[in-house]
């Protein structure tokens, strides 16, 4: 049986969302109704579920949401024109374009087109730069949610050795930047690393963002380490569809000190931090408007 503390991301996300409702209320009293625009291009079923969940959580938190669903054959010009309109709309505070985009659309061009102040995913180069400088206002939601869980479990992270498995722009790299900012010693391993498991075994904290079902087993984990599993992999077991992480939970749980499950770990935190970013964006835009009006 599992010896590790099971980190309940669902419960923690609910607490974060609860605290945000008060912030939304305060903003509304000041005449600002925070609003998130969600853009979905194409009909990828997983993206559809993510978008529906985001819109639902926004409504539950008191955040307005507008959905823009475009067909898979949408041209880049059409998409960029929509983003320009959302950038210019003072009633919209956050813009999220659900990734991945259908083939033929340039994700970089789309991300670059979003006004940095409304980039609630934190993917725009200006926000990535702020993050690396240690001064992020809009940090990417998944790694920020992971950091929150780590702080809940371990408190001050100073001096801990963290290994991040994966170096994507949306999870691995920003995770490493946030852990560095939290005073961890950070190692990043990736597909070209020759000794990934051995490096992981040295870690007090392991964050797995690989996209390989159950890649990390007990042999990768130091006894007592905190393990955050970002992976969402859809596989079939005995003919049944199943969602599993990048960590082999059953193998790692007896060794780790604490571990996030999949589902119910990082996923709900990502959405909670998207709402947090939307409110942060609304607060800043409102403050800027107040300053101009004064
Ligand atoms: P990417 O495919 O963009 O990146 C995967 C990374 O893993 C790459 O850096 C790759 O290395 C590295 N990698 C691949 N194989 C190995 C290996 N054998 N050993 C070590 N490193 C390896 O994935 P994402 O970062 O976008 O997503 C990772 C996982 O997280 C996915 O399962 C995704 O679904 C999930 N996810 C979950 C979210 C949530 O809210 N819970 C949000 C976002 C993602 P290289 O760079 O060398 O190719």
UniProtKB/TrEMBL annotation:
Keyword Oxidoreductase: yes
PROSITE patterns referenced in this protein's UniProt entry, alphabetically: THF_DHG_CYH_2
InterPro entries: Aminoacid_DH-like_N_sf, NAD(P)-bd_dom_sf, THF_DH/CycHdrlase, THF_DH/CycHdrlase_cat_dom, THF_DH/CycHdrlase_CS, THF_DH/CycHdrlase_NAD-bd_dom
Alphabetical keyword list: Amino-acid biosynthesis, Histidine biosynthesis, Hydrolase, Methionine biosynthesis, Multifunctional enzyme, NADP, One-carbon metabolism, Oxidoreductase, Purine biosynthesis
Coiled-coil ranges from the UniProt annotation: none
Span of domain Tetrahydrofolate dehydrogenase/cyclohydrolase NAD(P)-binding: 140-285
NCBIfam families in alphabetical order: PRK14186.1, PRK14188.1
HAMAP family in UniProt: THF_DHG_CYH (MF_01576)
Entry similarity comment: Belongs to the tetrahydrofolate dehydrogenase/cyclohydrolase family.
Protein name, per record: Bifunctional protein FolD
Gene from which this protein is expressed: folD
